[in-house]
Amino acid sequence: MRRRLAALPWIALTIACETAAVPVPDAGSDAAPDVFDAGPIGEACGNICEAEKKLCPADVAPDCVEACAVAPMQAGDCEEVLGAYITCLGEHSEEMISCLAADYPPACKQAHDAYLGCGHRGGCGPVECKDVGEGACSCDAICSGVTYTEACTQVDGGFDCTCSANGQLDKSCPGLPNGCAFFVGCCADELP
Questions:
Q1: Residues sharing a CB contact under 8 Å with residue 79, sequence separation 6 or more, in sequence order
Q2: Which helix (DSSP H) or strand (DSSP E) does residue 50 occupy?
Q3: Domain spans, the chain
């Protein structure tokens, strides 16, 4: 359930380039790749990938900067929103504490939430789970503009869980068979 920033295909972030010029391979040619100026996004991606190199070197893809720089162009209607999120992550890369997608810098909360909610009208964006320690879990998803959080603690015979909407406790669910089974767990009946 733990997603790493480096593992995300649209925000795969790496250390290979430190400049804003990013090579883009031409799929129909064996010639050397063309180089385009990735501008501020390329610089942000370089910062993010450098931070990830320090935090989780084994998980950083060799094409991290390149994949990160082209990600907004592949995000369809969410291009601007993803670009703003990547820019924020780059500006605050020194505040990154892990490579888990849920551990984004606090200054990027608004950009993060906008990106997760983008393109998910009426439904839920991706579920992100935080590492909260042994025998516990906490997962969030933004559904129709509301942030739902399912938090569970392991107890004898299962998990005691809660579901919150925008930080307000909605429901307690003692004795569930699985912890943080978001769409079939404690929050299942609360989701739109």
A1: 72, 73
A2: helix 39-55
A3: 5-117, 121-192
* pLDDT confidence bin for 125, thresholds 50/70/90: confident
Residue 20, Cβ neighbours under 10 Å: how many? 18
What token pair was written down for 141? 């998803």
Residue 159 and residue 151: Cα distance in Å, rounded? 10
Strand partners, 140: 128, 149
CB 140 within 8 Å of CB 148: yes
Reduced to 3 states (helix: H, G, I; strand: E, B; else coil), residue 71 is coil
Question: Which of these, 187, 96, 89, lies nearest to 138 by C-alpha position?
Answer: 187
Query: Which neighbouring-strand residues pair with 79?
Result: none
pLDDT in tens, 39-57: 779 999 999 999 999 998 8
Q: Which two structure tokens, joined as six digits, stand for 129?
A: 């789970």
Structure-model confidence comparison of residues 181 and 156, the more confident one: 156
